[in-house]
Fold:
Amino acid sequence: MKRLVAALAVLAALAACGQAPDRVHTSADADAPVVVRPMVFREPDPDMRRGLGPDGRPDLCARAKCVALTFDDGPMEHTERLLEMLARYDAKATFFVVGQMVEEFPEVVRKEVEQGHEIANHSWNHANLASLSADGVTAQIQRTQDAILQHSGYRSVLLRPPYGSSNAQVAKIAASFGLPEIIWAVDPLDWRDRNSSLIARRVLSQTGKGDVVLLHDIHASTVDAVPRILEGLAAKGFKFVTVSTLFAGTELKPGHQYRERHAAVAR
Ligand SMILES: [Zn+2]
Structure:
């Protein structure tokens, strides 16, 4: 019960993660079509599966067509199902976790780390960091760094401010933690449109080499879209890597913002 109440409280704060905080839902948003389909889980073609994951070269993405799929706001009840999908395709992803949810689902965060995914900081309770005092921003980042480290042994090296909302103060404090801000190049609006086919189509049509893609593992409709996303992007030659692998060989400056590898400076 405690877990459910906490999850609901966070969900309320997360209703529109990728959305600018001052934007208001229109009635069209509320009426967005919802298509519920049973999940069909096919084993990936072994030939296609080979070569999907990183091959260990540190500068893999300087040449290869890499994409970093990122999943925000969890962990939550659908996250373990997502981990099974990623494992079947040998795809690596990055989870921008909310500290409060790490406390609720520590075993899921440990599983994410064990399976080679990257864990990164998405604030303590999905606060709009640009609206907080310096002490407030520091507490949001510090508590989440501590929770990730305590429960998984992993030290996060990336920050994604909720809503992508940042300012000079947030940047300065992020820099004091040594954290670059990772925003996104592709937002398929999965936080608004709970329609798996639509989300998969948008990701497939909008993603280019070196992009960071914003998704949310708190929505079943997003998780249901993942096999189609993996198969579709793999067919176009993409490799699925963590954010740190995507940017390996470039310089990520603490406090600076990055959306895609293309814009980062090679070391
Ligand atoms: Zn978020």
The radius of gyration is 17 Å. Residues 14, 17, 72-73, 122, 126, 162 surround zinc ion (CB under 6 Å).
